Amino acid sequence: MKIAVRYYTRSGNTKKLAEAIAKAVSVDAKDVSVALDERVDILFLGCSYYAFDVDQAVKDFILNNKDAIGKIVCFGTSAMMKSMKKPVTKVAKTINVVVSDEDFHCRGQFGKIHKGRPNEDDLMKAAEFAKRYV
Fold it and tell me: N or C: which end of the chain has fewer CB within 10 A?
């Protein structure tokens, strides 16, 4: 089974989760600026909400790599919102890419809100989620 981990972050919170997930499934975590170089069965895709949506870079990544994505599994952090599944699915549906019903989300530090998150417990849970998923 081919697995890849890609993420988009402005604060570094989602990168921490991406690295924990990647380590758990024995691949490298890469920013969405790095295209998939081969078809993958599972793409763990991490991002956060910015103004109630995912960043355009995430949408562009999905669209530009459509032929290399088997299934997307979302993960991410945010200060207030929850799963990134809805905006990711909206894009993925337009190109017939499946998004898993399962995802991983935790709080992320935003200014003084949720200080220290994601923390070690969050990272451990993200890694466990990835291992269970595959």
Answer: N
In this predicted structure, what is the pLDDT of residue 110? 66
Task: Tell me how far apart the alpha carbons of residues 102 and 86 are, in angstroms, rounded to a whole number.
Answer: 12
Gap between the Cα atoms of 45 and 99, Å rounded: 10
First to last CA, the chain: 9
Reported as type and span, the H/E element at residue 6 is: strand 3-7
Q: How many CA atoms lie within 13 A of 9 on its CB side?
A: 24
Q: What is the pLDDT of residue 115?
A: 76
Residue 64 has pLDDT above 80, yes or no: yes
Mean pLDDT rounded to a whole number for the chain: 91
Q: Return the pLDDT at 53.
A: 80
Q: How big is the chain by its Cα radius of gyration, in Å?
A: 13
